[in-house]
């Protein structure tokens, strides 16, 4: 876990001198997908078009406590940190050890904590941070590749951690799991279809 420090000064998302090139990130991501296609949903990281659509749907600029599930190489993480309020908190859950380690090495921001564990631990980690709830959750988890038994604890944790009216924003490549999402959120909609992503993606928003 990355320790939370005092909130002061400017925050640097990446350490100087180790910012990876896009081609290096894509190669690393592709290797992870080849090794575990069920855990990594795509052969390449999310595009900037998908990132913009996701963060617009989540309205991160107005959120004080944010959780990110399955950030991978941190494409969306960087933009979340750039947009979120100066006093906001971000809790990141990445089950893959290599992805989590890279994020911990790169993220330099006292507002952020990185956990190398399943997102179903969200409530416990909020309690440790003395936080009551999250305002929004941004998910990159490939729910279509998970069994219902694996997906349900994550969705239950998301529902229980969100404040009333809070948003769960996920991208999915098919509508395969929408019926499962509907059982956890009072309303659910497809906010965007992002065709400029590989593969094209649905941005799904659930409201507690």
Task: Evaluate the radius of gyration.
Answer: 16 Å
What oligomeric arrangement do these chains adopt?
A: single chain
- Tell me the β content: 15-25%
Report the major sheet.
7 strands, mixed
What spatial order of strands do you see in the largest sheet?
Answer: 3-2-1-4-5-7-6
pLDDT below 50 for ≥5 consecutive residues: which ranges?
Answer: 1-21
Helical residues, percent: 25-40%
H/E series, N to C? HHEHEHEHEHEHEE
What's the count of strands?
Answer: 7
pLDDT average, as an integer? 85
Shape: globular
Count of discrete alpha- or pi-helical segments spanning 4 or more residues = 7
Characterize the structure shown.
34% of the residues lie in helices and 22% in strands. The chain contains seven helices and seven strands, in the order ααβαβαβαβαβαββ. It is α/β, with parallel strands linked by helices. The radius of gyration is 16 Å and the shape is globular. The chain has helices spanning 22-35, 48-58, 75-83, 97-106, 122-128, 148-161, 178-182; strands at 65-69, 89-93, 112-115, 134-139, 162-172, 187-194, 201-207. The model is unreliable at 1-21 (pLDDT under 50). A seven-stranded mixed beta sheet has the order 3-2-1-4-5-7-6, sandwiched between helices.
